[in-house]
Amino acid sequence: MMGEFERRHGFPPGVNEVRPADHTDRAAARTLAKVSFVPADLVTFYDSIGYVTWADVGNGYFVDPAGDVLLRLKEYGAVDTGAGTKAGGLVIGSNGGGLSYVAGPGGVVYRTRTASLDEPELDRVADDLRQFLELLERSLTRFAANGEPGCL
Fold first, then answer.
1. pLDDT for 106-133, tens place per residue?
2. How many angstroms from the chain centroid is the CA of residue 83?
3. How far is 62 from 150, CA to CA, in rounded Å?
4. CB 65 within 8 A of CB 45
5. Under a CB-based contact definition with an 8 Å cutoff, are residues 45 and 18 in contact?
6. pLDDT tens-digit profile of 21-74?
7. Best CA proximity match to 39, nearest among 102, 103, 82
8. Which distant-in-sequence residues (6+ apart) come within 8 Å of 73 by Cβ?
């Protein structure tokens, strides 16, 4: 994907990586595990993966480090995911267009319709984290093949 990027877009590529978890990331994952509404697969993910940054796939796709997720939870609280519960979800990442990805307590992943999290309107994008990560992978593959970033 990066071999043709500069020729296609006229500027060099940014950072595009999946960084393995380090000691700090794994400690943050253990802290996340203590939050009652955090899906178990998210904790497992953060125990292995520090973060995902695909800055050059469309507007960009980002899965934030567990430490950032915890900090955002502490400062702003959980995001109301609707469904008649205030248990809420966690902002786990974003696209480069200002929309956030929210993991709900049941594992469902949502995308906000606007940049605001005050009273977010959410669209379900995946039934669980695995499906969300598969959609990210397809977006990368599609972008590398034809320059289209996919549906996320």
1. 889 999 999 888 888 999 999 999 999 9
2. 21
3. 14
4. no
5. no
6. 999 999 999 999 998 889 999 999 999 999 999 888 878 899 999 999 999 999
7. 103
8. 35, 90
Token output for 40: 């178990």
CA angle 126/78/45 to nearest 5° reads 50
Residue 140 makes CB contacts below 8 A (sequence gap 6+) with 1, 54, 57, 61
> What span, in angstroms and rounded, lies between the C-alpha atoms of 106 and 127?
9
Give the pLDDT confidence score for residue 99 in this predicted structure: 94
Query: Could you tell me the two tokens for 35?
Result: 């939050």
Tokens of 95: 């696209």
The number of residues making up the chain comes to 152
Cα atoms in the Cβ-side hemisphere of radius 13 Å centred on 105: 15
**If we measure between CA atoms, which residue out of 136, 86, 149 comes closest to residue 109?**
136
What backbone phi and psi angles, to 5 degrees, belong to 54?
A: -120, 75
Angle between helices 40-48 and 23-33 (to 10 degrees): 170
- Contact predicate 85/71, CB 8 Å: no
Tokens of 14: 């940014």
Dist. CA 29–CA 38, nearest whole Å = 10
